[in-house]
Each structure stands twice: as structure tokens, then as C-alpha cells.
Amino acid sequence: MDQDSNNNSLDKVRSHLQRECFNKLFIGGKFVEPIEREKLPTYYPATGELLHEFPRGKANDIYAAISAAERAWAEGTWAAMSAANRAEIVAKMAQGIEDNKEMLAEIEAADVGKPFRQAAMTLGGAANEGKYWCSLGKALDKEQDLPVNSGGGKGGLPPAEWNVVYRRDPIGVVGLISAWNYPLNVAFRKVCPALIAGNCAILKPSEIAGLSCMFIGKLAQDAGIPPGVFNIVTGDRDAGVALTMSPSVSMISFTGSSITGSKVMEACAPKLSQVALELGGKSALVVFDDTDLDKAVETTMKGFLTNGGQICTAHTRLIVQDNFKQPLLNRLKEELEKLPFCANPITEKNRGDRAWEDGKTDVVQPVVCDSQHKKILGFLDDAKAAGVEILTGGGVPDEKVVGHSGGYFIQPTVLVNVGQETDVWQKEVFGPVLSVRSFSSEDEAVLEANSTKFGLASTVMSSDPAKAMRVANRIRAGAVYATSTGEGILAEHPAVSRGGFGCSGVGRELGIGGLHEYTELKSVNYTGFSLADAKIESVG
Ligand code: NAD
């Protein structure tokens, strides 16, 4: 890579980051300095250079944000509005993402190390998803005071003299803790439903790469969200812990690793507050021998290399039918060894994962930071020590191949004949590493797919629809793709609820069910007068 082009593009991102919203916390509707005035650094993954220093909010800043949210909650204006009216305001925030997509994509490219092209695509997705959430505002309003009119079974209806209805109330002050791999998408997926449901929220983005999330504060201010209804405190684990432990916070919506998810649940247990946990995965790609070879290779690559393997649904376990294994692995090795590295993600406008959908080349991005880089290499060292065979990759690419030094690059790696008990089969590596096993029967394929404690997503590939359906129905995962082409793998639609089985999560996000996660269901039983009379009185 040309060093000047690298410097110029980084300087451009640094100039975006001069804006107030990227340098302060957002509390009570204002941008404020953290109480202890400390900062945290973030580095450009492609070169390891310092990108930016952002505020390190600590427990006292979290408490200030919680107080602001409590005041807004006690005042009650936001919760008293209709969900449709709240959604109209949130829709301005979604539009703000679309309007600032280019700047935000440059920031995410520099912060996460993902190709600009991919960042711009996913940020467009966040804006669209925001619009979808806003469309649910009216749906939520329609659910208020709906009569309980079906129960099923004998005696399924309440007594005729009851006028019993359901309502969906907001929960109160909620904490939103997010991960770094798709920073703004993950955060906005929490902010939209939390606010539309009528809660007051505090967002704590990831300290590893969360700069784009800070812009949500500016969007909230511009959209006219009342002070205290939405707050952002950047910081590390300590800020997250303070948020989860606070007795004033009635729900934590968390996206991150399963290990941290269990700590969040533990912190919420004494106060019995609600939790929604979107956690890690170790997704399986099951390939039968009647699959088209080209499609199988393409799907395998997409499955484990999207976002550099740093996606919760990454298909990092390939389970291939015995007689199809060698042809698939031969082609996979050939294709992977041709892939170029992404020397400067900020300027990578044409290549990037899913680029093949437009007939363009894929490219291997760096992993997000030094500690992740070391962690992934540690997994590979342990695998080598355990005698696992490396088909391709297995370490750090030569600087000459990348084009410069200092970045957190890892070769796309395929491990074969992996033992079921090894860490590379059982644990989430969160990098460009694929582990391969094979099967001889349908039953064995299912056993292999279900052989970890995770259950986030999985795919079955076959040209036989009945077989694909039988296997899909037996796989234990929150989202299963059954496909002859690989089309749609990893795809999400905001109307389709998703979440994890087992150690991959608690609760579901997206869809109307995802909005309900941020509400409490309440029944109100009117007797002695009609509901219609009550409505007239309360309006009067
Ligand atoms: P992480 O668990 O290390 O951190 C997530 C967030 O939790 C960060 O904001 C962090 O500061 C905070 N945190 C850390 N310790 C805490 C504690 N004890 N109490 C409260 N907060 C704490 O995860 P990560 O490395 O940021 O993200 C990667 C993980 O996220 C992967 O496991 C990935 O699979 C998962 N993920 C899941 C989904 C999903 O939808 N299921 C989506 C994206 C990422």
C-alpha cells in the first residue's frame, strides 16, 4: 500500500473524529466530559497506528447517566407519548444514519478494519432496519387495550362480566451494552426498540471499536429526543459492570461474548431485572455431496470470512459428506490462497466480503485489534500442539504480501481432521479460521452440527429439498438456512426474529417479538363498567 494514501485516508477519518460527539459522553441531552477526564485509545487495525482517543466513562459517569434517565422516566413525557409519535422522532435518527453513511463508513473502516464498501452496505442496513422498527410504532399502539379474546382449550375465555385487556408497558430505565464487530448496527438494533417502546436508555458501546456509536448521541439531539431519554457512556468493562449492577436499571440488553453474557446475567440476578442476551456462536455449515461444488466453495468462504470471521453467525465449522470432502477442500485451498489482503480498508470501495455478489473480488481484512490478533494466534498454536492438520494458512501473512507492516492480519486458515473435543471445534475463535469434520450419514451430520454448546445459526446445503428440510429441522440453532445455492446464508431481515439456543443467548431480537422484549405485558381487568366508558372518561 502507498504510505501517503494510507496517511491521507487516516487523516480524513481523524478530521471527522474532531466533532464534539466523538469526544464527549452524551448525558441528559448534552455532550459532557467524563468526570475523571480519562481517555481510551483505538488503533487502525490495518497498520496499528493510533486512530483516536475517546472518553473513558467510569462508574460515576454511568451513575450520572442513570440519574438523567431516571429523571426523564419520572417526568413521564416520553412514555406517555404514543409509540407512533416516538417512532416518528426515532425515524429522524435512522434518516441521519443514511445521510451520514459515507462518514460513518469511513469511521467504521478505520475503527474495525472492515472494507469501506462493506461498512457502507451494513450501515445502509442499519438505517433501513431503523425505519422498520419505526413502522412497528403503530403496531404497538394497536396492541394496547386489546381484549383477551382467545385462550384455547376448555374454558378458554375469561368470564363474560370481565372486560380484560392486555397492555404493553415500557420497562423503565434500560441499559444497552454492545459489541464492536458491527458497532453501529448492533447498538442501533437496541436503541430503536428500546426508545419506541417508551423506555429511557443508556448505551455503553464497546471500547474496542465503538466510535460510530457515539454519533447516535448527535442524531438523538438533532431528532429532538427529550433530555435524559437517551444517553451514551463510552468506557470499558468497568462502565459495563456499573450499568448492570445498578438497582435503578430494570433491563439489560447485551450483545457480546457468552462469557460476558453470563456475568451480565449474574449481575442482574440479585435485583431480578430483565436480560436480553445476544451472544457468541460456532455455526455449522453442513454440505451434502449432491451440492454444486462451486456453490459449496463460495458458501464456505462467505460463511467463515465475512467481516474477517468476526461475526456472531460466522460458519466456522464445515461438516462435509465424506466423498465430497476432498474435492471441496482442494478447491477451497486454491481459492483462499488467491485472496488479496485489504491493506487500507478506508479506501476499499470496490472489494470486500459479499463482493462476489457483484462479480467482484473478495479481500481479507485485518482483525480488529492486537489482543484479538494474539488470541486467534493462540488458538492456532494450541491446535498445532494438539496435532490438528493445517490445510492452508495457520499464521500471519508475510508483510510483502500485505503491502506493509504493523497490521493485525491473519491468513485465512483451514484446519482439517479436527477433534470434536478441541478448542477450535468447541470455542468461538472470532477470526478467519475454519475447522473441518466429515460425516457419512444424515444422522451423523446432525450429531456433528449439534456438537457444541452454542446454537446461533447453521446452514444445510443439498440439492434435495426433503433432505435439507429434515436436517434443518433437527439442527439446534436460532436461525437455520436450508439451501441448494448458499444464497441468503448470513442474511437477516428486520421482520424475522432471531436469537440463540443454549450458550448463544436468551431472548429474541428483531420482528415484533424483538420490540416486545423491551416491554412488560400487563393485563387490566375492568369490572362493573365497560371499557368503552373508561376510555371516554379518561379522555374527558
Ligand atoms: P465482550 O463480551 O468482550 O464485550 C461486549 C460488551 O460488554 C463491551 O461493551 C464490553 O465493554 C462490555 N463488558 C465487558 N465485560 C463486562 C461485564 N462484566 N459487565 C458488563 N459489560 C461488560 O464482546 P465483544 O468482544 O465486544 O464482541 C464479540 C462477541 O459478541 C462475540 O462473542 C460475538 O459472537 C458476539 N456478538 C453476538 C451477536 C449476536 O447477535 N448474537 C452480534 C454481534 C456480536
Task: Describe, in plain words, how this protein is organized in 3D.
By secondary structure, the protein is α/β, with parallel strands linked by helices. The relative contact order is 0.13. Helix 17 links the parallel strand 18 and strand 19. It binds nicotinamide-adenine-dinucleotide (NAD). Nicotinamide-adenine-dinucleotide (NAD) binds next to helix 9 and helix 10. Nicotinamide-adenine-dinucleotide binds next to helix 9 and helix 10.
Percent range for β-strand residues? 15-25%
Question: Alpha-carbon distance between the termini?
Answer: 70 Å
Please describe the biggest sheet, giving its number of strands, its sense, and whether it closes into a barrel. Answer: 7 strands, mixed
* Arithmetic mean pLDDT: 94
Q: Assign a percent range to the helix content.
A: 40-55%
**Count of helical stretches:** 19
| Quantity of strands, as a count | 24
